[in-house]
Amino acid sequence: MDDIPVKREGIKKGIYLLPNLCTTASLFCGFYSIVSSLKGEFVTAAWAILAAGIFDFMDGRIARLTKANSEFGVEYDSLVDLASFGLAPGVLVYTWALQPFDRIGWLAAFLFFACGALRLARFNVQSDNVEKRYFQGLPIPVAAYVLATFVIFHDYLYDIPPLKSWFVLVMTVVLALLMVSTFRYYSFKQVDFKSRWSFFMLVIFVGVFFLIAAEPKVTMFFVVLTYVTTGILEEIITRRKSKALLGKFRAWKSLKVEASSEEDDDSGEGYRDVGTSEDPDDDDQNDQQLHH
């Protein structure tokens, strides 16, 4: 029996060139970061991750502005994000600070990489109906930026890699867990930059750029860390509000039960026992009749 040749179908509609070029540039930066980490050039590797984040931001904005969204672009962007913001930061943090921990060190780096993959998989499933105004869990580019900016910040302070930093180990694990958590982080996707804004908003943006440009090796880490902290604080505030509402509901429910029980007691006082007489003379007459 002859084998039936299978016809391979390509991408009939083609691909959008400009956003996918930005995605490829992000992939190149991630790969270059890995190569730099293996060569011991940790600061260069960190800056390459930051550059990958810029290209990742650009490809999404360009795709939305030019209406060049496609299923191919979504899948390609997700794979590139895993390489540039999952694998590259994992290799960087392991070769930079976690290698002295031996097994615990590379397991922490793998945990960061694996949680990043899970975070991206969940995002792809929930992007249409859940993750619009808020991200569910810390976005993987932000987690990668925390590690990359901390490498730059530490090099600015000490000029040498840490020998055996428990702080970096704990930070890596915490970032991994935040990515797969349900903490809410503002996505900025619904911010309309084409509409009219207040003049003071422009002043605020200029002030933020000034702070970052004044000493970027220091301010970038704290700006990213502030964003990470907002999700944790919002979760704490939300939980407190939920507990307060739950407490009020339980108090209202207990008051309602007590009120209903008091009504039952009041209604029970109107009923009397038919066989019991309230007049003591009647009881004496009954006793005399029984005696006779």
Overview of the structural elements:
The structure is a single chain. By secondary structure, the protein is mainly alpha-helical. The chain has a domain at 17-190 and 217-242: CDP-alcohol phosphotransferase transmembrane (TM) domain (Four Helix Bundle (Hemerythrin (Met), subunit A)), CATH 1.20.120. Helix content is 73%, strand content 2%. It is built from nine helices and two strands. Helix 3 (71-98) runs parallel beside helix 5 and helix 4 packs parallel to helix 6. The longest helix is centred in the C-terminal third of the chain and has 53 residues, at 216-268. The termini are far apart. Mean pLDDT is 81; it is low at 271-278.
- The strand order across the widest sheet is 1-2
The CATH topology of the domain at 17-190 and 217-242 turns out to be Four Helix Bundle (Hemerythrin (Met), subunit A)
Distance between the termini: 119 Å
Uncertain stretches of 5 or more adjacent residues: 271-278
